[in-house]
Amino acid sequence: MFMELLGLAAIVLYFFIALRFWQGFHRTYYSQSRFVLSVLWLPLLLNKSYRQNFRRALLG
To answer: CA of 9: how far to CAs of 26, 36, 38, in Å?
Structure first.
């Protein structure tokens, strides 16, 4: 039961952060691929440039 709840919380958190990136996308230097960059935010955080733009999108 606890693991299922933890998994659900992780999924909700993942999509919440993706939504925040989607909403702040206009603050980044990217001009296209909004959906792809929003959905794949976690593995893309390994890239330094993406990480900087991601932070800019979330924090403003």
So the answer is: 27, 22, 18
Sign of CA dihedral 12, 14, 16, 22: negative
CA dihedral 5, 54, 56, 20 (to 10 degrees): -40
Q: Are 25 and 50 in contact (CB under 8 A)?
A: no
Rounded to whole angstroms, how far apart are CA atoms 8 and 14? 10
Domain extent listing, the chain? 2-59
Over the stretch 9-31, which tens digit does the pLDDT of each residue have?
Answer: 999 999 999 999 999 999 999 99
